[in-house]
Amino acid sequence: MDVEDIFSSRVRMKILKVLAQMGELNVSDITRRLGVNYQTTARHLDVLEAEDILQHKKFGRIRLYRLNERSPKARAIQTLLDAWKESGVKSGRQS
Amino acid sequence: MPQYQNVFKDEAKLDINYVPKRLPHRDRELRLLMEFFDFMLHFPGKMSQRVLIVGEVGTGKTALSQRFGVDMTREAGNRGTNLHYIHVNCREYHGSFFLILQHAVTVFHPNFPKRGYSAEELLTFLMQILDEENAYAILTLDEFDSLVLTEGSDAVYQLTRSQEVRQNKPQRLSLVCILRDMSAIGQLDASTRSTLQSNIINLAKYSKQQLIDILNERVIIAFKPLAVPEETIDTIAELAYSENGNARFGIELLWRAGKYANAENFDIVSAESVRKAISSIVPATKKSDLAYLNLHEKLFLLGLARLFKDGHKAHVSLAEAEQIYMVACEEFNTEPHSHTQLWKYLHTLSGAGIVKTEVSAAGPRGRTTLVYLPRIPAADLEKELWALLQWKGA
């Protein structure tokens, strides 16, 4: 998938933002924070995991998602989101 | 802005959660605890351990286990072992096995979902996490009685036997259970009890001198130099000793007395600050108790209040008390009673919990009876007695 395809989805960007901020969350929690339905969240999580940007750990029925620390793409996204947040704080905007 | 006195250097050192670097009079117990877990440093995974720490409130159970946790984790880290010390207060989680295990899991995964699984599954998740991270955990269950009371034997049995169902896998979870007495253990069924009772560390109540040592250590790190005189420490130690040798009570009282000294803009924490502090946390003598005293008991107590009012004394001798009692008698135009009679008054006041007495060690002139005014601010007491005596005279 091309970079524009990844970044063109508002839901995917929100997932990345919330995981960059919280570190690790399960599917229900991400769904609640995004205000979308479970299936939509699950579908976008699969896309991001297939791109190696996310990884998950499984505990019984629970799946905990996080940015894949070993992935250069995930590290670049984390840097981008941190910089965005930082500049938002400086200019008094909420990111 | 006016400059206010601050007796504290670092009052956080008096916080209940502060883990001191040194634990006076608990070195032996700390060494024993380290000894029980020595295997974790040399061959982790080969075995697991269960230890009980038993002692009354304020005997240093929590401080001992937390100091052990810090030392053990650091030592294991130096040897390349991924050891986690997890301290859980069971009462804080209402003795719920589920919530206690959830706390343990959130040490590794802070956003672990709050529902959707059972306590048994949580225990499995905890073991899975330890396996995946090649980690070991010492789970300390503080106020263990609360867990036993709420969950009974089953939860404890599952915890103690969690290793046995994992055949041919490393032993990753050890337990430290902290409790006030062994009565909770008696409530467990025989097989659960047998898994727990092999290693017991009993913490005896602190003596007054030991409490003085503990308070002195805290004074050095928490207060400015010379801010807490010896007499003040002596008064607090005496009070903590009378509260069943409770060091925590003593440390909290030390902090509160410091706050009272600051509020009055003093540069030292006097024994009077301690009396004010204690009267704010334990019910002081009721006015009615004073009203029931006879005239000479009141006069004797008035003299004592005046002796303590300057704020610096922790105790006075009976001879000093007798001298000032005579002055009070003259003031109220009454003949002083004999020394023997004063002894009886002292006994009455001590029985009512208004004063405390102690016989000093033998000096060049023999033993002396020392009188303490531990709980009531001397100035308040003088005012109250003065009002009662005036009313009587009217």
Can you describe what's shown?
The complex is a heterodimer of chains A (95) and B (394). Chain A has 95 residues and is of the alpha+beta class. Chain A is built from five helices and three strands; from the N terminus they run H-H-E-H-H-E-E-H. In chain A, strands 1-3-2 form a three-stranded antiparallel β-sheet. In chain A, a hairpin with a 2-residue loop joins strand 2 and strand 3. With 394 residues, chain B is an alpha/beta fold. In chain B, the strands form two sheets. Chain B has a five-stranded parallel β-sheet, with helices on both faces. Chain B has a three-stranded antiparallel β-sheet with strand order 6-8-7. Chain B starts with 26 loop residues before the first helix and ends with a helix.
What secondary-structure arrangement, pairings included, does this model have?
The complex is a heterodimer of chains A (about 100) and B (about 400).
Chain A: H1 3-7, H2 10-22, E1 24-26, H3 27-34, H4 38-50, E2 54-59, E3 62-67, H5 72-90
Antiparallel strand pairs in A: 1-3, 2-3
Chain B: H1 27-36, H2 39-42, E1 50-55, H3 61-78, E2 82-89, H4 97-108, H5 119-132, E3 135-142, H6 144-151, H7 153-161, E4 173-179, H8 183-186, H9 190-196, E5 200-203, H10 208-222, H11 230-242, H12 247-263, H13 271-281, H14 287-291, H15 295-308, E6 315-317, H16 318-331, H17 339-351, E7 356-359, E8 369-372, H18 378-393
